[in-house]
Amino acid sequence: MEQDVHKNADRFLGFADVYDCARPKCPDKVKEIILMYLGESPSVVVDLGCGTGLSTTIWSDVSNKVIGIEPSNDMIKLAREKASDLGNVSYVSGFSDSTRLENSSADIVTCSQSFHWMNPETTLNEVSRILKEGGVFAVYDCDWPPVCNWKAEFEYATLFEKVSEIESRYIDIQSHPVKFDKENHLANIKNSRCFRYVREIVFSNTETCNAERFIGIALSQGGLQSILKNNADEIYPFILAYTERIEEIFGTSEFEIDFCYRMRIGVK
Questions:
Q1: pTM score, whole prediction
Q2: Which of 188, 198, 200, 243 qualifies as a FRET site for 209, CA 20 to 30 Å off?
Q3: Are 70 and 42 in contact (CB under 8 A)?
């Protein structure tokens, strides 16, 4: 049976502000690596599943045109508000496999924390269609939680064990999203035969954090938000316990965290 990934957009309704404040911005390393493989300054960069634009605006200083494509109305509304003063950045409401962009129009196409919500076959065909010869496709994801403190990481893991357990019991929650395994990203890109060169690159990026943001990182996860929408009473006590414990661990201090990234590159 064909899987309808378009309904995944509903999973990201109602928490754009939390998402935007807690999630990591696109690391400079992403831009450095992609530009190295492209070998020149891009004219057009397309960011698929761009969310609130955290992975989009980083390209505004090197590309003539930057286009973010996002199906969630909440996310794209905030992205547009944030980029109102950037004349070369625009956002289009749409899906990864139906961008409505011209053939061979993009130098770079990226997917940040989003490719696992897309049908890989139809998306890769669309990427190949809009990407110029020699253009670069990059999928990159970070691991959760970020590296910082084993006690805090333990509390995060404990909370999401409960999230997984609740998801397994409630069909309306479990069956809602269509999700593709991140472990298959590299193989899917290779098997598409759309790219002459494919590889995986691993790196980390350091950011500043505090207790509020670390709590927000958990609240920005779609699985947790789906449970809040469908069965909030059961998860609330666990969120409260997590919040209290993280505040106890970190207090009012600021500290560094490392987001560990895996990026899959395809050169057309």
A1: 0.91
A2: 200
A3: no
Structural domain spans, the chain: 5-144+178-207+255-267
Q: Which CATH class is domain 5-144+178-207+255-267?
A: alpha beta
Instruction: For the chain, give the mean pLDDT.
Output: 92
Q: Taking each helix axis as running N to C, give the angle between helix 150-169 and helix 211-219, from 0 to 180 degrees, rounded to the nearest 10.
A: 20
Question: What's the CA gap between 249 and 8, in Å, rounded?
Answer: 34
pLDDT tens for 114-161 read 999 999 999 999 999 999 999 999 999 999 999 999 999 999 999 999
80/91 Cα distance (integer angstroms): 7
Three-class DSSP category at 78: helix
- Determine how β-strand 65-70 pairs with β-strand 44-48: parallel
DSSP single-letter state for residue 144: S
